[in-house]
């Protein structure tokens, strides 16, 4: 039909147009004229400006109980993910890494249509029975920034990873078993991915010189769909403000993938702990928050008076086991800086003469929160160590040049008190140790972006949390400045939590190949846990820490073994998402961009609140509203479920019917949830839960309500 293209041609056309211009052009009057002109051309549905994304930067699998020792667990039942293909959209891969050995792997399946695209220092032979496909994309990036300049740093015009990020995420999701792995002697043990028997397909769209082009991303989605992946892991995104779904290439590409039965998993962003910062919020995506695991790296700090404090660090060598002078950053400010900047060891703030050969104490500030910046500053003035006092967090910063011990403000203040009372203060830093099962976890990481979605508050985001703090996985030696170079590295970020869920999805897909992406997401959300390993409510790191809620972790912390048998699932079809887009006000032409075919909006009930998600969010409850959901029985054929409600504060909640009876001819049942506000105030969000229970399964979805008087009020 004139004016519309099938999905492959649609994304290809959009990609070619976007490849020829940058964002500033799209914002100019002349560009808006040409944009309208191009959109009137036959065969063009929509013109989208190119955007630049960024990557969102092994105890974790044992912590999740994803291990072969559980005979009825997800790893055993899925045969370690055999038969599933995970597509990784990232910075590429280092194929020689031990994590990608193909011992015992089967040949690629006959359904696989992908290729091994050669390039700089990457041949077709670098693919294997583990890495069954590899492609690289540069046209969109070079249209935005010009010819890629590799003279100022290491990069490869090929699928080879010069950054390390893609190698890390790939090995986290599906790495083979590697024994006796450590990071500088810490966290020693067996490294493995979540789905070690799954195949990997690599789509390199991000480059060491910075950023990932949305045009390249869209082209990669096109290829991955045609190639035949089962899961797509996308650890990247752009910070708020969020583009509309019809202008967001990640939302468009993932929509096409989900329409073909491919589950898309994305990182939720690293802008926490601030609300409304979560990214990748389309309802057809699984959006992942980051959490901690129960492994710590205690590092002793001994003062000259033999008083000892303990922080965390990755420190095993460098300083001899003796005392060194310690100075306070504020006291050694450079002549071009001020005391406030020097207190936090901001860039260029320290006097080199006064810092040389000493350990420097710095305090995190509102303007300088980063231990990484402080490490660089102290190293530049030839300081020999750093103690960085900060808001409490379990995220440990990697420092390859000098020891960096992270402590809280209480310990930092105690050190400062000692220094002020002592003429020649001294400190000794003892090598870090690895300790497991002694740290309360999981907790939501301080950097993990929080909901609600700033684009569609009625869609709960993030969906689920997974380990993303101090994760040890494979690394590209090309990105290391050390000798010998790093082959495994610690990293933190929602980029690390995303491939944990991708690996679990591959396992679920191997067990339940007929499940749709919505069913898989539902299984993860409804079985997730809101308790830590001591059965206490999960805490979210922040300033201060607080009890976590659905805007921190969605349904909760992933429980992979329970997700295998969720009992009931909340399924959704592409037509449901189209209905949502229509209800949000997008016109038929714009929605056709998403669907890749002619699509007209029809009048229907409120698709915003009635979209069949495994959650209910009502951001504007005035008096009362009724919401409907449909559940599908995937457990025992003859099952009876009873509803139980934990109502959000200030809300009265009823479920009709309150009992659901399933049999061989009744596998799907609809129910309604009636919400009535008990308050007439401009309120804040409150949280509750709806459970369906049959004595064996507990199917829980979050309830999130905000009472309002006027829709136009901002959240305060």
TrEMBL record:
<keyword id="KW-0720">Serine protease</keyword>
<keyword id="KW-0732">Signal</keyword>
<dbReference type="Pfam" id="PF17766">
    <property type="entry name" value="fn3_6"/>
</dbReference>
<dbReference type="InterPro" id="IPR041469">
    <property type="entry name" value="Subtilisin-like_FN3"/>
</dbReference>
<feature type="active site" description="Charge relay system">
    <location>
        <position position="90"/>
    </location>
</feature>
<dbReference type="Pfam" id="PF00082">
    <property type="entry name" value="Peptidase_S8"/>
</dbReference>
<dbReference type="GO" id="GO:0004252">
    <property type="term" value="F:serine-type endopeptidase activity"/>
</dbReference>
<keyword id="KW-0378">Hydrolase</keyword>
<dbReference type="InterPro" id="IPR015500">
    <property type="entry name" value="Peptidase_S8_subtilisin-rel"/>
</dbReference>
<dbReference type="InterPro" id="IPR023828">
    <property type="entry name" value="Peptidase_S8_Ser-AS"/>
</dbReference>
<protein>
    <submittedName>
        <fullName>Subtilisin-like protease SBT3.9 isoform X2</fullName>
    </submittedName>
</protein>
<feature type="domain" description="Subtilisin-like protease fibronectin type-III">
    <location>
        <begin position="610"/>
        <end position="705"/>
    </location>
</feature>
<dbReference type="GO" id="GO:0006508">
    <property type="term" value="P:proteolysis"/>
</dbReference>
<keyword id="KW-0645">Protease</keyword>
<comment type="similarity">
    <text>Belongs to the peptidase S8 family.</text>
</comment>
<feature type="active site" description="Charge relay system">
    <location>
        <position position="165"/>
    </location>
</feature>
<dbReference type="InterPro" id="IPR034197">
    <property type="entry name" value="Peptidases_S8_3"/>
</dbReference>
<dbReference type="InterPro" id="IPR045051">
    <property type="entry name" value="SBT"/>
</dbReference>
<dbReference type="InterPro" id="IPR036852">
    <property type="entry name" value="Peptidase_S8/S53_dom_sf"/>
</dbReference>
<feature type="domain" description="Peptidase S8/S53">
    <location>
        <begin position="81"/>
        <end position="534"/>
    </location>
</feature>
<feature type="active site" description="Charge relay system">
    <location>
        <position position="495"/>
    </location>
</feature>
<dbReference type="InterPro" id="IPR000209">
    <property type="entry name" value="Peptidase_S8/S53_dom"/>
</dbReference>
């Amino acid at each position: 039909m004139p004016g519309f293209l099938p999905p492959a041609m649609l994304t290809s056309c959009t990609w070619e147009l976007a490849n020829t211009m940058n964002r500033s052009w799209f914002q100019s009057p002349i560009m808006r004229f040409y944009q309208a002109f191009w959109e009137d051309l036959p065969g063009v549905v929509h013109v989208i400006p190119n955007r630049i994304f960024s990557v969102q930067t092994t105890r974790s699998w044992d912590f999740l109980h994803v291990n072969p020792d559980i005979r009825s667990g997800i790893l055993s039942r899925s045969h370690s993910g055999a038969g599933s293909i995970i597509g990784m959209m990232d910075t590429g891969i280092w194929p020689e890494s031990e994590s990608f050995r193909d011992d015992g792997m089967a040949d690629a399946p006959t359904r696989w249509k992908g290729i091994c695209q050669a390039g700089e220092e990457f041949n077709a032979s670098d693919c294997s029975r583990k890495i069954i496909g590899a492609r690289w994309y540069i046209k969109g990036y070079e249209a935005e920034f010009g010819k890629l300049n590799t003279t100022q740093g290491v990069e490869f015009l090929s699928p080879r990873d010069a950054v390390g990020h893609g190698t890390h995420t790939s090995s986290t999701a599906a790495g083979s078993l590697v024994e006796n792995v450590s990071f500088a002697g810490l966290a020693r043990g067996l490294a493995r991915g979540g789905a070690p028997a799954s195949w990997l397909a690599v789509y390199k769209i991000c480059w060491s010189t910075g950023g990932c082009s949305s045009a390249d991303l869209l082209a990669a989605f096109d290829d991955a769909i045609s190639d035949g992946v089962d899961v797509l892991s996308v650890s990247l995104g752009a910070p708020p403000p969020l583009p509309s779904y019809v202008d967001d290439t990640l939302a468009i590409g993932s929509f096409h993938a989900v329409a073909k039965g491919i589950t898309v998993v994305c990182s939720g962003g690293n802008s926490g702990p601030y609300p409304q910062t979560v990214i990748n919020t389309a309802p057809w995506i699984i959006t992942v928050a980051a959490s901690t695991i129960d492994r710590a790296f205690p590092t002793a700090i001994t003062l000259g008076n033999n008083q000892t404090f303990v922080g965390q660090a990755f420190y095993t060598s460098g300083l001899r086991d003796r005392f060194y002078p310690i100075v306070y950053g504020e006291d050694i400010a450079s002549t071009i800086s001020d005391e406030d900047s020097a207190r936090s060891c901001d860039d260029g703030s320290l006097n080199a003469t006064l810092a040389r050969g000493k350990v420097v104490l710095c305090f995190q500030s509102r303007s300088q929160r980063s231990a990484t910046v402080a490490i660089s500053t102290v190293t530049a003035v030839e300081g020999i160590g750093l103690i960085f006092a900060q808001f409490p967090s379990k995220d440990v910063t990697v420092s390859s040049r000098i020891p960096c011990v992270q402590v809280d403000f209480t310990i930092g203040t105690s050190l400062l008190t000692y220094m002020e009372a002592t003429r020649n203060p001294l400190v000794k830093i003892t090598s870090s140790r690895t300790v497991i099962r002694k740290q309360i976890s999981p907790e939501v990481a301080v950097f993990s972006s929080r909901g609600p979605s700033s684009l569609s508050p009625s869609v709960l985001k993030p969906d689920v949390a997974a380990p993303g703090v101090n994760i040890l996985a494979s690394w590209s030696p090309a990105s290391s400045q050390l000798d010998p170079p790093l082959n495994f590295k610690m990293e933190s970020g929602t980029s690390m939590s995303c491939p944990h869920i991708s690996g679990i999805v591959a396992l679920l897909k191997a067990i339940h190949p007929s499940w749709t992406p919505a069913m898989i997401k539902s299984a993860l959300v409804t079985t997730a846990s809101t308790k830590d390993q001591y059965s206490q409510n999960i805490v979210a790191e922040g300033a201060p820490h607080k009890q976590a809620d659905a805007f921190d972790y969605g349904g909760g912390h992933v429980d992979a073994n329970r997700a295998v048998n969720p009992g009931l699932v909340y399924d959704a079809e592409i037509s449901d998402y189209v209905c949502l887009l229509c209800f949000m006000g997008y016109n038929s032409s714009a929605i056709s961009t998403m669907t890749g075919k002619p699509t007209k909006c029809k009048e229907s009930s409120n698709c915003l609140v009635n979209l069949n998600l495994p959650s209910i969010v009502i951001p504007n409850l005035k008096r009362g509203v009724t919401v409907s959901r449909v559940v599908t029985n995937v457990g025992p054929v003859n099952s009876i479920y009873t509803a139980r409600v934990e109502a959000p504060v200030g809300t009265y909640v009823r479920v009709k019917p309150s009992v659901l009876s399933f049999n061989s001819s009744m596998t799907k049942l609809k129910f309604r949830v009636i919400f009535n506000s008990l308050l007439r105030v401009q309120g804040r969000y409150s949280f509750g839960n709806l459970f369906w229970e049959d004595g064996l399964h507990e199917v829980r979805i979050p309830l999130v309500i905000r009472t309002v008087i006027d829709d136009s009020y901002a959240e305060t």
